[in-house]
Amino acid sequence: MSLSTSPSSSAALDRTRRDPALAAFWLLRLGFVALPLVMGLDKFTNLLADWPDYLAPWMVDLLPFAPSTAMYVVGVVEVVAAVSVAIRPRWAAWVVAAWLGGIILNLLTYPGFYDVALRDVGLLVAAAALGLLSMTYDPAHRTPAATR
């Protein structure tokens, strides 16, 4: 079964098939749009997890408001991060990596969440890879030497 595509989308799909680094860029870019969007929106519903439980007790003590309110702020940041990666992955990927670094620090100071912290280290590495790939494949920031 063949999908009908326009000539330009067909050429882009063909280029992606021939260039594994470009395919990796798009896979990471789409992932870092979809995942933070879902996770950010879930901060308002708590369907996937009871998010305030992920805050280290020392952070809860520092908050001037309820932990649930902190998670609403986190949710907004994650949705903004998703939109930013969709629009400008070259700089947004590094912002996401820094955000993940903060999450990792929080989780490492709270026993029982080391496995989640380790998973987030993997996500941080993937965000950094997206940032590096964006130097070549983000059309909004491509230099003449980087075009192929």
TrEMBL record:
The keyword Transmembrane applies. The chain crosses the membrane at residues 21-42, 62-84, 91-110, 116-133. It comes from the Bacteria. Keywords: Membrane, Transmembrane, Transmembrane helix. This is DoxX-like protein. It comes from Ornithinicoccus hortensis. The lineage of its organism: Bacteria, Bacillati, Actinomycetota, Actinomycetes, Micrococcales.
